[in-house]
């Protein structure tokens, strides 16, 4: 069914196929699927590093910049800068990365190399840093500095005995750490991981949308009626009951009672609605976080690409500029990108050359012209390509990137950033729901996209009958028929603010659902020609 414009309601009617038109293959983005590693060694081990100024690392299958950065005790941004990486979502097996300002490759020493007394002290050994020691004990560097009158936090000596404020002295070992907290086994009743995600220091928190109070770290309840107990044990009293898909602030994972029916002794330590601290068995919930560091790395990479270059985007909504050629007689290329609403990206300036599809809305850097082609590159995949000029739009192209919406498919949330007085500000963060991978739906594609247009509302069709089923308010289109929008409702229904499914699991037809008030905020806040959408994992 073709789409039509309804001037009476200022809406767009979108067919199912325009809502679900392409998928970027997950394997094309090696940095996808980042989650903190909460696995615990049976025997605690000390992970330490020799302090040097630079080393190198060879990327292996399954690696991500996040995991590599955590391994070396550096940030994703440092690795991106040291290697001139244009797309932090895309690294390759065999790629050699410079790790600047880091430790050398992490090595493992037997547990017990360092010593901690029962009185809350720790004896420094070779390779230790205050950061690693603080993380191991769940305290801050500042607390250790204050407790020991340390003048220079960068200078500690082997054999030095440090007081650890509030420490139990249970292990004296340091565990591997990521941006969301520390990990390491402390035995029965100990802390397995702490969750304390923070916005990077270089980003100002300047919230312009504050309707909902959302924690940076939380768990999504995956069962109906999960008990929240006063202790990590079934003997603990029930202080609350969390329903299916409820989101609860989480501060740690601890060891508690082993439940054979679930095969685990790990419990999430959470903050319940009344502020009470409680515990949920880990099997009953899934950890979620806001990946602010990765969001910042992605938008910084895009800003670096856009500055001082000619930026454009693929324009072929509903094949308005002509259907791309068939790929070997088919409608999908080897990377999973669909022919519909895409353009051909040729390896040379000839329609007889090999090609792949590049999706509508994809941001481009124009490198030059060759006859009827633009020579381009994109941050969505590596290489330089030639795209027929009819598919490339310079209309409202981004000359100065100042606003970015970063959608996280894995955690089902998003961060919204604005460049103010030369610095990035976090102006909003919220839950979001992305596209499902089912018969009538498609995942929201990873990558870097133009904000192409905004509409006050658009209509959508029933998957089976093709009849108009309802509308979604405050849409921002960024690729094909994919919009960031508010809660969808029936055709004649009033707008609905809230849906309990927002930020839970992928459910949409490739769009990104928001609470309606947040969609309205984005609709009013975005500026064509200055705003981009980035989809990460």
TrEMBL record:
Biased composition (Low complexity): 169-183
Domain L,D-TPase catalytic intervals: 403-536
Source domain of life: Bacteria
Every LysM domain range: 55-99, 120-164
SMART domains: LysM, SH3b
Domain SH3b: 216-289
Signal sequence, start to end: 1-30
Single GO molecular function: lytic endotransglycosylase activity
Disordered: annotated span: 169-189
Active-site annotation: 485, 511
UniProt keyword annotations, A-Z: Cell shape, Cell wall biogenesis/degradation, Peptidoglycan synthesis, Signal, Transferase
Pathway: Cell wall biogenesis; peptidoglycan biosynthesis
Pfam families noted in UniProt: LysM, SH3_3, YkuD
InterPro entries, A to Z: LD_TPept_cat_dom, LysM, LysM_dom_sf, SH3-like_bac-type, Transpep_catalytic_dom
Name of the protein described by the UniProt record: LysM repeat-containing protein
Organism whose genome encodes this protein: Anaerobium acetethylicum
């Amino acid at each position: 069914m073709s789409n039509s414009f309804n001037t009476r309601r200022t809406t767009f009617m979108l067919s199912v196929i325009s809502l679900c038109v392409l998928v970027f293959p997950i394997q094309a983005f090696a940095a996808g699927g980042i989650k903190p590693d909460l696995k615990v060694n049976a025997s605690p081990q000390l992970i330490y590093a020799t302090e040097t100024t630079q080393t190198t690392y060879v990327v292996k299958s399954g690696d991500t910049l996040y995991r590599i950065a955590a391994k070396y005790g550096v940030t994703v941004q440092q690795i991106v800068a040291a290697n001139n990486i244009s797309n932090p979502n895309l690294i390759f097996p065999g790629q050699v990365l410079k790790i600047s300002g880091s430790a050398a490759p992490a090595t493992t020493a037997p547990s017990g190399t360092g010593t901690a007394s029962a009185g809350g002290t720790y004896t420094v050994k070779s390779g230790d840093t205050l950061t690693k020691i603080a993380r191991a004990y769940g305290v801050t560097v500042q607390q250790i500095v204050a407790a020991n009158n340390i003048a220079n936090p960068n200078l500690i000596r082997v054999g030095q005995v440090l007081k650890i404020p509030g420490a139990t002295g249970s292990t004296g070992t340091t565990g591997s750490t990521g941006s969301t907290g520390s990990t390491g086994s402390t035995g029965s009743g100990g802390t397995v991981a702490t969750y304390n995600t923070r916005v990077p220091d270089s980003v100002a928190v300047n919230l312009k949308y504050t309707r909902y109070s959302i924690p940076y770290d939380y768990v999504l309840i995956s069962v109906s009626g999960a008990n929240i107990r006063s202790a990590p044990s079934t003997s603990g009293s029930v202080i609350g009951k969390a329903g299916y898909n409820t989101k609860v602030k989480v501060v740690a994972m601890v060891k508690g009672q082993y439940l054979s029916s679930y095969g685990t002794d790990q419990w999430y330590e959470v903050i319940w609605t009344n502020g009470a601290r409680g515990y949920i068995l880990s099997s009953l919930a899934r950890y979620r976080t806001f990946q602010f560091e990765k969001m910042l790395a992605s938008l910084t990479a895009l800003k670096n690409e856009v500055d001082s270059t000619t930026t454009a985007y693929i324009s072929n909504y509903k094949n308005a500029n002509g259907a791309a050629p068939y790929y070997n007689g088919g409608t999908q290329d080897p990377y999973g990108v669909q022919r519909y609403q895409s353009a051909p990206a040729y390896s040379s300036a000839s329609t007889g050359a090999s090609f792949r599809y590049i999706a509508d809305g994809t941001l481009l850097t124009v490198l030059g012209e060759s006859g009827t082609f633009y020579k381009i590159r994109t941050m969505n995949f590596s290489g330089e390509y030639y795209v027929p000029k009819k598919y490339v739009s310079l209309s409202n192209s981004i000359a100065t990137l100042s606003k970015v919406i970063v959608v996280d498919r894995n955690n089902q949330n998003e961060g919204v950033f604005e460049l103010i007085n030369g610095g990035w500000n976090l102006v909003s963060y919220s839950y979001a729901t992305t596209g499902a991978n089912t018969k009538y739906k498609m995942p929201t594609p990873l990558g870097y996209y133009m904000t192409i247009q905004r509409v006050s509302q658009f209509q959508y069709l029933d998957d089976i009958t093709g009849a108009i089923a309802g509308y979604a308010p405050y849409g921002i289109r960024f690729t094909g028929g994919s919009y960031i929008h508010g809660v969808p409702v029936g055709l004649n229904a009033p707008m609905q603010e809230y849906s309990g499914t927002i930020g839970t699991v992928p459910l949409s037809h490739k769009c990104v659902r928001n609470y309606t008030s947040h969609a309205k905020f984005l609709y009013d806040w975005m500026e064509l020609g200055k705003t981009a959408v980035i989809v990460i994992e």
